[in-house]
Amino acid sequence: MTTPPLTDNYDTPWKDAVMRYFPEFMAFYFPLAYAGVDWTRLFTFLDQELAQVVQDAELGKRLVDRLVQVSTLQGGINWIYIHIEVQGQYDSNFAKRLFIYNYRIYDRYDRPVATLAVLADDSDTWQPKSFGYELFGSRHYLEFPSVILVQYTDQLHDLLKQPNPFAMVTAAHLQNRSTKGNNHQRYDAKLRLAKLLYERDRDKQRILDLYAVIDWMMTLPRELEYLLQTEINTFERNKQVAYLTNAERFGIEKGLQQGIQQGLLQGKLDGKLEGKLEGQAVVLTRQLNKRFGPLSIETSQRLQLATSEQLECWADRILDAPSLAAVFDMH
Predict the structure, then answer these.
(1) In 3-state terms, what secondary structure has residue 2?
(2) Nearest residue to 45 (alpha-carbon basis) of 65, 24, 25
(3) Which terminus of the chain, N or C, has less C-beta within 10 A?
């Protein structure tokens, strides 16, 4: 049985990341603007105000729009507005929409507005930077800096070394797109990013925050998500920490094991290699190998001959069982 494609969710992780790490967002994508902001003073997100300003404007497919009030280092201007757009696909009216948003924000607040754009689509050439018009000597024009994420593709190795959280977010975005349609490659990429969080950052909350973004962005089928959680659990035991195995926080619900059985058992029974790899017993075998090391021939045969009820029971026990024998106790 073929697992249906998953819908990638960018909106939530991007919004969360921008709000949690706004200074780092500015420093990574727009260093010139970052240098002009007084980061010793508070900044304020104005989402409701932005919604009121643009509610009747025609919207394209966007991932994030944010309006932030910040203080500047320039003399004579105490505070301004920064309007951020993260755009997920090509839109011929994108520059025009930013032009409209910019003058509406200015009209409402009578303050300077800086418009900044991050282009998260698949093109490496589409890069709108301006919109405007001239008529009878009158000129109305907006120019704005824009960043193309796919242009970071060749820098993936360097991104994974940088401390800025948006280097990690960018890497996750790129690897999510490059592994679309290949869940096993995405599994490997997601596990690698999770382990890197421990290697380059020891702050628990920061690890939790960044993994939440990666987790929401790089969605996996349920059986692979459960296997990933098992692998992280083993990794954390070796590190003697317990950060990412908080099942309640990351939505790895108690009934996740049941999701392994839904649609996967048929894969085991149809005799095809692809279906068998997705089968119930194969998934459980991998989980047991990760937790307790290589299985004996007897244990492997036991898994192959087990009933669906037995496999369900053992899958329920695997996270909490202190030993391999405890998984199979009374079965």
Answers:
(1) coil
(2) 65
(3) C
If one counts every other C-beta atom within 10 angstroms of the C-beta of residue 60, the result is: 16
For the entire predicted model, the pTM comes to: 0.67
Coil/strand/helix, residue 150: helix
263, 1 contact by CB (below 8 A) = yes
pLDDT digits (tens, 9 = 90+) for 201-235: 667 777 877 888 888 888 888 788 888 888 887 77
Query: Each residue of 89-128: pLDDT tens digit?
Result: 888 889 998 999 899 899 888 889 999 999 988 888 899 9
Give CA–CA dist 319/287, Å, rounded: 9
Distance CA 132, CA 99 (A): 7
**Phi/psi at 209 (nearest 5 deg)?**
-65, -45
Residue 19 DSSP SS3: helix
Single-letter amino acid code for the residue at 168: M
Tell me which DSSP letter residue 129 carries: -
DSSP code per residue over 236-272: HHHHT--STT-TTTTT--TTHHHHHHTTTHHHHHT--
The order of strands in the sheet holding 44-45 is: 44-45, 62-71, 79-87, 113-119, 146-148
Cα separation of 260 and 266, whole Å? 11
CB-CB contact of 82 with 70 (8 Å): yes
